[in-house]
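User: Before I run my own analysis I want an independent prediction to cross-check against. Here's the chain; please return only the structure tokens and, at the end, one sentence I can use as a sanity check.
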Amino acid sequence: MYSEEARAKTFSLNLINIGHILERSMLVSHRFGLRRSSERTVEFNVLNEMAAYLWSVFGLTLTVISPTQAEEDRLGFDDIMEGLPLGQLIAVQFKRPKEMKRPKNAVRFTLDTLQLNCLASNFSRHQAYVFLAPFPTNQQVVRYRRRLLTMTVALDVFDIPNLYKTKQKTRTARVYTYVTLTRAPRLEIADPRKYQPISKTSTAAELCELVGKSDVGYRITSNEVKPDQPRKIGIRKLYYLHVAKLHEFADSPESSRI
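Assistant: Structure tokens:
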């Protein structure tokens, strides 16, 4: 039997190998004209870094639950959560980055106001986040591969100014790619045309630290009771991040069936 230390080393080496393969494949794709990064590229790499960080620093396992479009329409949050092992659950939505000519060093994101309202209506503070990763090209994803978490904004939906304002269908946010002396990314949001700064922001790395301290997320308990009227989220491309320690899997009622 392998020791926990050996398993951790093997896990870390596998992640590093995956990262090197991704870097080489992205460079080849750029050579053949695939310049712009897709949501999937950004999502995969950021979540991969989060999983590696939480495991290496806190010994936590991160499992990404990604319902299909049909499941998103049919199931509610309580249906998706039912039967999961004990742990923390965080709702995360990524937005595709788009290049901007002006101002320089800024990346644009489009936020759907109805989706923001839906997240705020179904979750509490520190449970639902919008991830804004300012890497609009594959070249930038590769170049900043080891800094993805410190440069990606993890925006709590409740920190968005005028959150419940729905006069416009979408709102534009922009993240400046340079990092200030405080190492906090600069974020602004239009309301509706004039941009205003969002002072209270965190990075994906800082969110990982809060997760490690159990300060964020919906806490799944052993006595979870499914409500008569399950919460319907109905948001496209919403990830549920399940975070737990290994011993919590053994404490889950479902573990006895495996």
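Sanity check: The chain has one domain: 4-246.
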